Amino acid sequence: GAAMAKSKFEYVRDFEADDTCLAHCWVVVRLDGRNFHRFAEKHNFTKPNDSRALHLMTKCAQTVMEELEDIVIAYGQSDEYSFVFKRKSNWFKRRARIFPTSIWLLLILITDLQTVVFATAECFDGRVVVYPSNQTLKDYLSWRQADCHINNLYNTVFWALVQQSGLTPIQAQERLQGTLTADKNEILFSEFNINYNNEPLMYRKGTVLIWQKVDEVTTKEVRLPAEMEGKKMVVTRTRTKAVPLHCDIIGDAFWKEHPEILD
Ligand code: ATP
Ligand code: ATP
Ligand code: MG
Ligand code: MG
Ligand code: MG
Ligand code: MG
Ligand code: MG
Question: N or C terminus of the chain: which is more exposed, having fewer CB within 10 Å?
Answer without folding.
Answer: N
